[in-house]
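[recover] target loaded
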């Protein structure tokens, strides 16, 4: 099965008439100035793709980590990241992805988070996911928590529980969290029950998600 770089390239070539020129220019800029070239390319993807930038694409069968809401911009940025990572020593790659997230504007951050699971050895990029959960930007938070396999697959228990509870605070449906049921623990139920109790004591409505989580398990 081809890796994310080839799968993304194949999809873009089939979807964007001018894709070949994009890849040619990207390879040239990455070779000439890897760091600066990458940042400029990553930020400029929507402009380079033009009207196709925000078009959702059918997830390729050879890229099981992809989701239906990914746009062609996400695939282009996945290709760029997968292309750039091997140019760095392995030890520097997690920091590179974290910096990519922290230095990006919201759209760039969303792309970086959506594709984390598709990167080689994705468990190395947990710190990027944790940083994303500290944001109050809803689009960014949803990119790591919703319709994204990364959260349940790689977050430690404490951080996973905190992300679920923050979703409830932010009124983001926990039904959008992939793999949630397998990660529900007595501690998460206790946290949800405590939150529900605080809401009742304050005379405030209890979110359905908190009620669902606080119910005893089988």
């Amino acid at each position: 099965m081809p890796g994310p770089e080839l799968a993304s390239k194949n999809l873009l070539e089939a979807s964007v008439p001018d894709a070949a020129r994009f890849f040619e220019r990207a390879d040239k800029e990455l070779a000439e100035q890897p760091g600066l070239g990458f940042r400029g390319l990553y930020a400029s993807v929507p402009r380079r793709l033009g009207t196709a930038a925000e078009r959702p694409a059918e997830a390729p069968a050879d890229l099981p980590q992809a989701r239906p809401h990914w746009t062609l911009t996400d695939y282009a940025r996945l290709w760029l990241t997968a292309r750039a990572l091997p140019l760095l020593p392995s030890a520097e790659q997690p920091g590179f992805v974290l910096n990519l997230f922290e230095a990006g504007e919201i759209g760039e951050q969303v792309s970086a988070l959506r594709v984390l699971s598709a990167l080689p050895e994705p468990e190395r990029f947990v710190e990027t996911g944790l940083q994303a959960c500290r944001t109050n930007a809803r689009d960014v938070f949803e990119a790591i928590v919703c319709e994204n396999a990364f959260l349940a697959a790689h977050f430690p228990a404490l951080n996973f529980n905190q992300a679920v509870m923050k979703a409830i605070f932010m009124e983001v449906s926990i039904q959008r969290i992939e793999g949630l049921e397998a990660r529900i623990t007595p501690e998460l139920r206790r946290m949800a029950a405590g939150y529900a109790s605080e809401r009742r004591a304050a005379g405030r409505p209890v979110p359905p998600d908190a009620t669902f989580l606080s119910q005893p398990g089988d």
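[recover] notes: The chain has a mean pLDDT of 93.
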